[in-house]
Each structure stands twice: as C-alpha cells, then as structure tokens.
C-alpha cells in the first residue's frame, strides 16, 4: 500500500503538468527556427531526434532544425524538473523552394504549392496535359517516395473538356438497303453508302 501511494504521488505532478503546452512549430526540411520559453530551461527531451535537432541558444530560447519530414515533440524542463513547455514540431517539405523552382521552369503557368502532412499538393491551372506531367515530375523531385511522401496533383488543364459521343449501331442487311436505293461498298475496311 505504501509503495502504491509513493507511485501515485510521483505520477500526480506529471499528470498535472500535462496542461502545459508550448507553441506548434512548423518548419521546412533543412531549415531552423527559434522558440521562446516561459522560463530558464535545464533539460530538453526530443521524442524523435531523427526528425528535429534542438539546442539551447540562451536559458529561455531554443533553436530547432528540421532533419526529416514528420512530426515529433520537444519537452523543456526547468531546474526543478517542472515541465516548462510541450512543443509540437512538424517538419515538412520546403514549399517555398518547390514553388520558386516551378515558377522558374514554368513562368506562364498558374501553379500553387502546399504541403499537407508529408505530401506536396499542386493546385492551379496549366495550359496543357504535357505541362501538367512536367510540373508533376518536377515536384516529384522534392519528395522522398521511400519515406511515403507523394505529389498530389489537383491541377486543372486549361480548356480541357470532356466530349460525349452518342453512337448508334445499326444492323442492316444488303437486300433491305438496296430496296431503299442504297448500295453499300465494303472496300478499304470502310463502308461507303451511295444512293440512287
């Protein structure tokens, strides 16, 4: 019983600290940013160091560097072991670099680039299907397919229309056609109808 009470006393402060939240940091792959803390930090824990690297700039400011696309969190603790902040970190493909590259290679096209989770989403209007394929291919060079990243193509092609054809298949025999004065010619794998 005494052991259970000791465990419960130890767990309660941690549960009470769960209400402490920090900012959500959205950072591009290979880029860095800083995060202000509400007090001096003594210890830092990164849930997935493969996604983000964290260091201390000064006692109440951290830097965060995006190493891999994905999400993790950072816990910052005070000298007394109290949780100062629980910082959510989302590392994504660099939208600006993708957007600038597409603008450089396709300046006449109206293309918008966004990232959703680990995917690059392309929207806007392009002039033809060939250009849409080239844009998709270029954007694909910024994602890591092995890591599950994809390019989502929501672009529309200018002037693209669907044409619906209504075709009726008519079966007729030669004798019936001759009665109406129509002479079928089956040469060259085409049927030519001539009337009299």
Describe the protein's architecture and organization.
The relative contact order is 0.11. The strands form four sheets. This protein has a four-stranded mixed β-sheet, with no helix packed on it. Strands 8, 9, 10 and 11 form a four-stranded mixed β-sheet that branches. The chain is an alpha/beta fold. It has helices at 2-17, 95-105, 129-140, 174-179; strands at 24-28, 32-36, 43-46, 52-58, 61-66, 70-77, 83-92, 110-116, 119-126, 151-153, 156-157, 182-185, 192-195. The radius of gyration is 32 Å and the shape is rod-shaped. The protein is 23% helix and 37% strand. It has four helices and 13 strands. The longest helix is centred in the N-terminal third of the chain and has 16 residues, at 2-17.
User: What is the SS-derived class?
Assistant: alpha/beta
N-to-C SSE string, H for helix and E for strand: HEEEEEEEHEEHEEHEE
Runs in which pLDDT lies below 50 for 5 or more consecutive residues are 1-17
How many beta strands in the DSSP annotation?
Answer: 13
**Major sheet characteristics:** 4 strands, mixed
| Mean model confidence by pLDDT | 81
Radius of gyration: 32 Å
Outline, from the CA principal axes?
Answer: rod-shaped
Spatial order of the strands forming the largest sheet: 1-7-6-3
Distance between the termini: 111 Å
User: How helical, in percent, are the residues?
Assistant: 10-25%
Proportion in β-strands: 35-45%
């Amino acid at each position: 019983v005494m052991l259970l009470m000791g465990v419960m006393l130890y767990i309660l402060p941690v549960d009470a600290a769960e209400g402490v939240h920090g900012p959500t940091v959205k950072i591009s792959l290979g880029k860095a940013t800083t995060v202000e803390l509400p007090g001096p930090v003594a210890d830092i824990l990164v849930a997935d160091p493969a996604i983000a690297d964290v260091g201390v700039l000064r006692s109440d400011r951290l830097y965060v560097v995006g190493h891999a696309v994905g999400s993790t969190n950072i816990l910052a603790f005070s000298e007394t072991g109290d949780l100062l902040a629980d910082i959510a970190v989302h590392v994504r493909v660099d939208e600006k670099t993708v957007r600038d590259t597409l603008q450089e290679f396709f300046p006449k096209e109206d293309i918008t680039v966004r990232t959703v989770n680990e995917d690059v989403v392309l929207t806007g209007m392009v002039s033809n299907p060939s250009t849409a394929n080239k844009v998709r291919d270029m954007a694909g060079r910024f994602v890591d397919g092995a890591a599950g990243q994809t390019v989502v193509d929501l672009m529309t092609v200018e002037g693209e229309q669907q044409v619906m054809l209504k075709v009726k298949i008519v079966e007729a025999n030669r004798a019936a056609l001759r009665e109406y004065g129509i002479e079928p010619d089956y040469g060259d794998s085409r049927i030519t109808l001539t009337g009299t």
